[in-house]
Amino acid sequence: MLTLSVPSTTANATAEMTSTPLMRQYAAAKQKHPDALLFFRLGDFYELFFEDAKTAARELQITLTSRDKERAIPMCGVPHHAADQYIARLLRLGHRIAICEQLEDPKLTKTIVRREVTRVLTPGTAIDPSLNSEQNNFLAALCFDGAKIGVALLDNSTGDFRATEFTGKDALAQCTDELTRFAPAEILLTDDPNVASAPLEEAFRARTVTHLEAWVLTADYALPLLQNHLGTRELAGFGLEGHTAAAVAAGGILHYLRATQLGQLEHIDRVRYYEHSGCLQLDAVTVRNLELVEPLMPNARRNTTLFHALDFCQTPMGKRKLRATILRPLLELAAIDERQEGVAELHGGLLLREQTRANLANILDLERLLSRISLDSAGPRDLLALAHSAARLPALAEGLTHLQSTVWKRLHTSLDCLTDLYQTICTTLTEQPPVHLEDGGVIAASVDAELDELRLLSSGGKQSIAAMEERERQRTGIGSLKVRYNSVFGYYIEITKANLQNVPADYERKQTLVNAERFTTPELKSHERSVLGAQERCLEIERRIFRELRQTILAASARIRASAEAVAEIDLLTCFAHLSAARQYVRPEIDGSGILEALAARHPVIEWHMQQAAEGRFVPNSIYLDTEGPSLLLLTGPNMGGKSTYLRQAALLVILAQMGCFVPAQRMRLGIVDRIYTRIGASDNVAEGRSTFMVEMTETATILNTATRQSLLLLDEMGRGTATFDGMSLAWATVEHLHEVLGARTLFATHYHELTMLSVHLPRLKNLRVTVQETPTGIVFLHTIEEGAANKSY
Predict the structure, then answer these.
(1) Which pLDDT tens digit goes with each residue over 332-354?
(2) What angle do CA 152, 155, 158 make, to 5 degrees?
């Protein structure tokens, strides 16, 4: 766990901080944000001092210098235009960042420039463009209310805000599983010592954990805060009625955002309550063992996951939707069938499918663009990117009119083409605006009459200067006389030293060079005032128009978010249709039975890798499980023969089917699965004092105590963490319990071939074996599964 601590400062350091007006200004800002690295704006740089400088120099590998050689105040800095990349690196390391900006133009003040902290960035509130487009960046808050645990999750970069509750004796374990699936970058907990949150802090010690004062996470404070922000007297419309703990957690997140973002939060205009039991449940162990979104080994390539094998999405919203769908497959038969109908219809139309993918390809991240606009961190090009993305929506919507499935009609209705916003942005901004508003030239011509006049004055200045230069040459007789401008001295007349005797008396010396002198005149001063004043006024007008445009966009934030959600789902279904056509996947038949049947099924990830590497063809295998028939398949055979692949393949087929996707098989029939459990491989947790055997027994106990008849169980090589006969006894007893008590669909791979004798006594147990060919030099793996038991251990 990354803890947040106040940097220590000695008495000498404190004296140094207050020795000058600038350092007193720094000290005041640091005192308000002692637990953050303070990025203090000085001209074109953000500077850090004292312990902050030492920390930043170490983490960013930049040079540590000193502000004052005598007092040796540690100092380091980064250019303000490149600060985002440095800040992103510090946030990923778990640090908090306070941005102290200059609030005045140094040119317009004769005293020290006023500075204030305008934003506090934390790992869970980051919105910078370097965020992984395929992942959400969640901030989580927890509220402990008796036997209930309320959980709220917010992705500040997209406005995705949701809440749920856990209750009962397993509430803490379920909460931990849920947080593991969402992988929040930061978790907010109460600092109340009476709340037993230590297990959560231990489970997420690699994440940033921030403690809020106990009064924040109370109903008296958090509920009115949430209601006021959402503009409602009741929370029933958001599904939060009767879910006080969840609502309080959501209010805690809003409190934290207001304290750190120090700005408007228009992009957070709703929160939704969701039932965590409303999807196919996948606990942390299963998500890890099946490599759904992250590789099993920390340093392995990320393309070994199911997510990367399926990712044909064209938009960032679609990628995040795919990731979320993998972690939370559907549970309702009607919802799965609706999604499958949509995939099937697009699967059958190659031209329309590819046209839809092409229209999606140029749509940028609408959710994150809206968030940056809401938090006032968007530049002119961000607004133009929003407009260019909106320009693709009409063609996308037109394509949907050719589809008749229920899901496509619903998506067509919910897809707002944002035509008015597109026209407003494009007519207000220039075609190629600069990166920063302060650079000028952002607002298009004919938007503001005064702005057009001032620009004409500024552009006409060049003609005036040319005319003035020619007049002065005629008056003085100096043919080499030049009228020039630079940002330090403004406008000046430059005359070489050889012509100084011809300088008129009304010329005022401004600067002496080696070979020339620079002068000014009353006329030139007047021109400088009018031109520079026009430029400053232009910037003022552009800032005003840009603010108005931003407010216009924010007024349509609900429409933008609705379109972003529709685009995400369109992208997801199009992805399913595309990969199903490209890889010859078939539509599974899903019903309410207890059957899991797949004919000539393939492993979706391994098959994809083999195709990418041109390493031959994946050997398909069939599977048949039935709670009323063979509900337990006992799989024996040599290590590396394919037992684990067979187990994982069955689980991935179920996940794909209940996502609404087609599956890699000749035929598949599936009775809805409510939860998948895995006990695969041998691992320990020495940090928590848990041996390999203890981890194995704990995971097995969880399965036996919480699985239902509708679950799918995968157990691989159980009993390896102890003595041979002890391990075989445990495996034997577990098989009997699974068969006699649970009756769930189970795949049980083992190296104890003695267990195959159980088929005589257990009618719903069926023996399968991995086929091998024994030769004088060893054995050859055939990677096929057939009925029968292995007659020995290898």
Answers:
(1) 999 999 999 999 999 988 999 99
(2) 140
CA distances in angstroms from 216 to 187, 193, 221, 250, listed in the order given: 14, 14, 6, 11
State the Cα–Cα distance between residues 75 and 42, nearest whole angstrom: 12
Taking alpha carbons only, the member of 315, 264, 339, 351 closest to residue 588 is 339
The span from the CA of 677 to the CA of 150, in Å, is 25
Which residue, among 660, 655, 611, 572, has the nearest Cα to 134 in the 3D structure? Answer: 572
Q: Which residue has the tokens 């008129």?
A: 504
DSSP character for 61? T
The residue among 761, 306, 784 whose CA lies nearest residue 575 is: 306
The rounded distance, in Å, linking the Cα atoms of 47 and 28 is: 15
Q: Record the pTM.
A: 0.84
Reported as a pLDDT band with limits 50, 70 and 90, residue 779 is confident
Measured N-to-C along each axis, helices 366-374 and 557-582 cross at an angle, to the nearest 10 degrees, of 160
pLDDT in tens, 173-216: 888 888 888 889 899 998 888 777 777 777 777 678 888 999 99
Low-confidence winner among 256-270, 418-432, 595-609, 617-631 (lowest mean pLDDT): 256-270
Residues in contact with 452: Cβ distance below 8 Å, sequence separation at least 6, in sequence order? 445, 446
List phi, psi (to 5°) of 519: -130, 170
Give the separation between CA 87 and CA 110, rounded to whole angstroms: 31
Residues in the chain: 794
The confidence band for 3, taking pLDDT boundaries of 50, 70 and 90, is very low
DSSP 8-state assignment for residue 115: E
Using the CB atoms, write b or e for 160-182: b if 16+ within 10 Å: bbbbbbbeeeeebbbbbbbbbbb
The separation between CA 108 and the C-alpha centre of its own chain, rounded to angstroms, equals 41
